[in-house]
Design brief:
CATH superfamily of one domain: Glycogen Phosphorylase B
Distance between the termini: 17 Å
Number of strands: 25
Shape: globular
Strand content: 15-25%
CATH topology of one domain: Rossmann fold
Largest sheet: 10 strands, mixed
Bound molecules: ligand 26W
CATH architecture of one domain: 3-Layer(aba) Sandwich
Structural class: alpha/beta
Helix content: 40-55%
CATH class of one domain: Alpha Beta
């Protein structure tokens, strides 16, 4: 790599000169970032080529992880870390009068995802490369990523995220690997002279999928995998054909725009499946280019087609890329000439599927009419898959029409993507133990009964390299000083920290590091938001998408309640706290936007009232993103994971916060259950209904929020402040709908039901935090057990249990 600091400085200065015609004095920070990126890319390229050659030579099975989202964030810091040149580069830059962290800030945060599902995909790529496994991402190169959020008068404003306006230094355009993707047209079956059937596709619209490859650098192992992002462009023939219509140039431009619009923007909604035509086009565009490109790479090996599923695994991240199943069938039958049975066996053996949600409103289904019009051949194949599946059901359950209708892939005028994904794959997994159990017992019960061995659990994980080593360098350093560095490549070794439970010097160090991180955040909040916060207060952190089931509203109401307590009773004091929120709402999610408005209103009241000011502050950090998370997580004391039990599939923020020494206040939901199991009752604050209780209430309809409202004076008083004159409502009826949601419409997410228990848990936290040493022990126990939630563990399980792959022997691992 670089033989030392001087070597780096020379290479860097040369690059500034040759690439940009600048030197360290004349270069802007953006120039310096670009030069550094391009220099690193050179180094990465060598290992990238070598990795590819090794995989080919070893005939390693290749995994393609299909995902509509890859929330990768910035890459400069994590690439430097994984390449093990962070220190050399940082010091070299400092000699030249440049600050690495300032350059890092110049990189646009690649926000190609909504939240959990997209960030998980990014963590998985890091672990695949680090474990030396041949796993690559297939995604879309959206021109506009997740919107930028601004708060104007407390209301969310969405601004476009033109992240490519500045060169994305890591990507390599590979036009020679372009794939043709077809939409629309007519398909007719035709018998050739020998009597065999083939399908003639005419009058379709064809466009080009051009890949942009982003290297995925493994940690300390010279492995570089690929994240391939596809971009839509009009095909050459299309341009010539349309351009010859000279007098219709305006139409031509419209046509061109409509084709390239496929990869124009990321859908910013992870709460509602809207069934938009452009979204289906995006999904098929990803699937078709990915499948064709995977088959092309397989062809290069020169092996018989019957070995396809030994060489290739296609993983679908939720149902969004489920069209992989009929698309692979199409390629195997129509292009490779296989018969149905052989094609089906290979397809099922190659495809595996992860489910990320049980929320019914997020389950995808597409109107038959749309699928048929946009993807006529794919639709024919789906219908045939459905026919054959229903026939097999009929054999097992003769006459049981209801059951067959409820399991069918095509029913009620819709194509049900989850059903397609289950039927067409060999593995279906949930993302935490509880979630997988719920899938088996409820959401996918009938499928589970038919194919029990297909279902399995893979509890989510996060890359501790980005989320600890990079985001919280001082903590990582102190851990290594205490227990050595084995934990970096074997995160289970974090458990060795338990030996330090009684080591006062180490506990002091933990406390001091957290304190310093809190001071850094206080300075940043002061600078960006103009709010003064007390670094000695408890940092209580609630950061995630805004969603009814995630219950930011419960946290907000509790803050109103605390405020009221202090105001009404001057002798009442609380352990000082700063409540942090960060959350984006889907642009069309009215309720979620009201909750943002409420939080902002509470912040305005609380932060400007000297009666409470020294005991509490509320900060809404705008534009939640990977970079914001990296800043705030190392400073957190309390991690809010308060979803209504049974609704959060796993959560991954819970893991990042635990890894950084925050204590969880949480319901027994998603992976919180597993955190609780590891750290024990004393090191987590659990509260609220259990998932069984919630499911029982959903069933028996015995919950009455009105009754809770009437019996609990604290709740009644707080809720009335939403509609009556109060510091929060200011006599306007902005929050009326929230009130009615909670009281009149029976509180869909059991906020009132869980309120008392939540308030009690918060009180326990306030008390426990005062015992500083004990709190540090609890924090240490959380860090020590967080190795289980490294995505290295998760990926190892996917590799052995689902994909059946091993590291390339000749790579350094
Ligand atoms: C079609 C609209 C849409 C888009 C995305 C619906 C649903 C989604 C995702 C499935 C939402 C999502 O990100 N789910 C989260 O996935 C994480 C990773 O597994 C889990 O940790 C979270 O619990 C889950 O909410």
């Amino acid at each position: 790599m670089f033989s030392g600091k001087e070597d780096f400085k020379q290479a860097f200065s040369e690059r500034l000169e040759t690439k940009l015609g600048k030197n360290a004095k004349t270069a802007t920070e953006v120039d310096a970032y670009r030069a550094l990126g391009s220099l690193l890319q050179d180094k990465i390229n060598k290992n990238w080529l070598r990795t590819d050659q090794e995989y080919k030579k070893n005939q390693n099975k290749q995994v393609y992880y299909f995902s509509m989202e890859f929330l990768i964030g910035r890459l400069l810091g994590s690439n430097l870390l994984n390449m093990q040149v962070l220190k050399v580069v940082e010091e070299g830059l400092r000699d030249l009068g440049l600050s690495l962290s300032a350059l890092e800030e110049k990189e646009n945060d690649a926000g190609l995802g909504n939240g959990g599902l997209g960030r998980l995909a990014a963590c998985f790529l890091d672990s695949l490369a680090t474990l030396g496994l041949a796993g690559h991402g297939y995604g879309l190169r959206y021109k506009y990523g997740m919107f930028h959020q601004q708060l104007v008068d407390g209301s969310q404003l969405e601004l476009p995220d033109n992240w490519l306006a500045q060169e994305f230094v890591w990507e390599v355009r590979r036009p020679e690997e372009t794939i043709e993707v077809r939409f629309g047209g007519k398909v007719s079956p035709i018998k050739d002279s020998l009597g065999s059937l083939y399908f003639d596709h005419r009058d379709y619209e064809q466009l080009q999928a051009v890949p942009y490859d982003v290297p995925v650098v493994g940690y300390n192992n010279e492995t570089v995998n690929t994240l391939r992002l596809w971009s839509a462009e009009p095909s050459a023939e299309d341009i010539i054909a349309k351009a010859s219509l000279k007098d219709d140039f305006g139409n031509f431009l419209d046509h061109r725009r409509s084709l390239t619009s496929i990869t124009e923007f990321l859908y910013p909604d992870d709460s509602n499946e809207e069934g938009k035509e452009l979204r289906l086009k995006q999904e098929y565009f990803l699937v078709s280019s990915g499948v064709q490109s995977a088959v092309r790479s397989f062809d290069e090996l020169g092996l018989p087609l019957s070995t396809f599923s030994n060489q290739v695994a296609l993983h679908i991240n939720d149902t969004h890329p489920a069209l992989v199943i009929p698309e692979l069938m199409r390629v195997l039958m129509d292009e490779k000439g296989l018969g149905w049975e052989k094609a089906w066996d290979l397809t099922q053996a190659s495809v595996s599927y992860t489910n990320h949600t049980t929320l019914s409103e997020a389950l995808e289904s597409w109107p038959i009419e749309l699928v048929q019009r946009l993807l006529p051949r794919i639709f024919m194949i789906i219908v045939e898959i459905n026919e054959r599946f229903c026939q097999s059901l009929w054999k097992t359950y003769p006459g049981d029409f209801d059951r067959i209708a409820s399991l069918a892939i095509v029913a009620d005028g819709q194509v049900k993507m989850a059903h397609l994904a289950i039927v067409g794959s060999h593995s279906v997994n949930g993302v935490a133990q509880l979630h997988t159990e719920i899938l088996k017992k409820r959401e996918m019960k009938s499928f589970y009964k038919s194919f029990p061995s297909r279902f399995n659990n893979k509890t989510n994980g996060i890359t501790h390299r980005r989320w600890l080593m990079h985001a919280n360098e001082p903590l990582a350093k102190s851990i290594t000083e205490a227990i050595g560095n084995d934990w970096i490549e074997q995160p289970g070794h974090l458990q060795d920290l338990l030996q330090k439970k009684n080591d006062n010097a180490f506990l002091d160090q933990l406390y001091d590091i957290k304190q310093q991180n809190k001071e850094d955040v206080a300075a940043w909040v002061k600078q960006t938001e103009g709010i003064t916060i007390d670094p000695l207060s408890i940092y209580d952190v609630h950061i995630k998408r805004l969603h009814g089931y995630k219950r930011q509203l419960l946290n907000a109401l509790h803050i109103m309640y605390l405020y009221n307590q202090i105001k009404l009773n001057r002798s009442f004091t609380i352990q000082p706290r700063t409540f942090f929120f960060a959350a984006k709402a889907a642009p069309s999610y009215y309720f979620a936007k009201k909750v943002i408005k409420l939080i902002d209103t509470i912040a305005g009241v609380v932060n400007n009232d000297p009666d409470v000011n020294d005991q509490m502050k509320v900060v809404f950090l705008p534009n939640y993103s990977v970079s914001t998370a990296e800043r705030i997580i190392p400073a957190a004391n309390v991690s809010e994971q308060i979803s209504l039990a049974s609704k959060e599939a796993s959560g991954t923020g819970n893991m990042k916060l635990m890894l950084n020494g925050a204590l969880t206040i949480g319901t027994m939901d998603g992976a919180n259950v597993e955190i609780h199991e590891l750290v024990g009752d004393d090191n987590i604050y659990t509260f609220g209904l259990s998932s069984e209780e919630v499911l029982e209430y959903d069933h028996n309809k015995l919950y009455s929020s009105q009754a809770v409202y009437e019996t609990d004076e604290r709740i009644r008083h707080t809720l009335n402040q939403l509609i009556h004159y109060s510091p929060f409502s200011k006599g306007e009826n902005v929050f009326e709908e929230l009130y009615h949601h909670l009281v009149t419409h029976n509180d869909e997410f059991f906020v009132l039901k869980d309120f008392a228990d939540y308030a009690a848990a918060q009180q326990r936290i306030s008390q426990d935090y005062q015992a500083k040493r004990q709190w540090s022990v609890k924090s240490l126990i959380n860090i020590a057990h967080s190795g289980t939630f490294s995505s290295d563990r998760t990926i190892q399980q996917y590799a052995t249990e689902i994909w059946r792959i091993q590291p390339a022997k000749t790579l350094k691992v």
